[in-house]
Amino acid sequence: ELRHRASPWQRNLGYPLAMLGLLALTGISVLIVCFHVLELLLDDAAMPRGIQDASLGQVSFSIFGSFGAALQVVLIFYLMVSSVVGFYSSPLFTRLLPERQDTPLTKIIGNCVSLLVLSSALPVFSRTLGITRFDLLGDFGRFNWLGNFYIVFLYNMGFAGLTTLCLVKKVSWAVQAELIRAFGEDR
Fold first, then answer.
1. Which residues, in sequence order, are CB contacts of 59 under 8 Å at separation 6+?
2. Which GO molecular function terms does the record list (predicted)?
3. Using one digit for the tens of pLDDT, what is the confidence trace for 2-18?
4. Are the CB atoms for 122 and 87 separated by under 8 Å?
């Protein structure tokens, strides 16, 4: 219903650009994680431990300078939004979605707790994936399990593999459905 009410500009330009942006952000995050996996295999310094004696403004947290730092911010924001969307899309938590002017207090508290847990896990999540090395107002690099190579390596491989699988599945199924519809085989 929302697609039918959208303007032609929105349907023909807005939605495809948004889709390309999401594909690009997902692809960039998978590439960064794959690069981080290679770093993990070659260098022990790639482990997401805390940075000692790194003052803000004196050490660059990205090899690409200001552009890399801006890309990290965009990717972290993308991971935050996709985590929230994925959380509320899972079958276990769809009942937790708030309803307009009809949300009981227990559901509001559950949403607050869920968003607090997701936002607290985001710095550790982005550090473990190698997207950033910045500690975001906390010393999240001091967790003991962040020094375990196997946990960090499997976490990165799982993220890269599952994200690629979801990306290929969604894109290939959408292309397949459009091809079937275009050739009139859907009848």
1. 51
2. transmembrane signaling receptor activity
3. 667 777 777 777 778 88
4. no
In this structure, the answer to whether residues 171 and 126 fall within a common structural domain is no
User: What is the spatial distance between Cα 111 and Cα 87, in angstroms, rounded to a whole number?
Assistant: 11
Residue 73 sits in the same domain as residue 126: yes
Q: Which residue range forms the structural domain that includes residue 172?
A: 148-186
Which distant-in-sequence residues (6+ apart) come within 8 Å of 119 by Cβ? Answer: 80
- For 143, left (φ over 0), alpha (ψ -120 to 50), or beta? beta
Each residue's pLDDT tens digit, 37-64:
898 888 777 677 655 545 545 455 566 6
Q: Which residue type does 115 have? A: L
pTM confidence score: 0.74
Phi, psi angles (nearest 5°) of residue 90: -70, 145
Write down the H helix ranges in the chain. 2-5, 8-9, 15-42, 65-89, 105-128, 149-182
Give the position of tokens 């936002």: 119
DSSP 144: G
- In angstroms, the CA 162 to CA 176 distance is 21
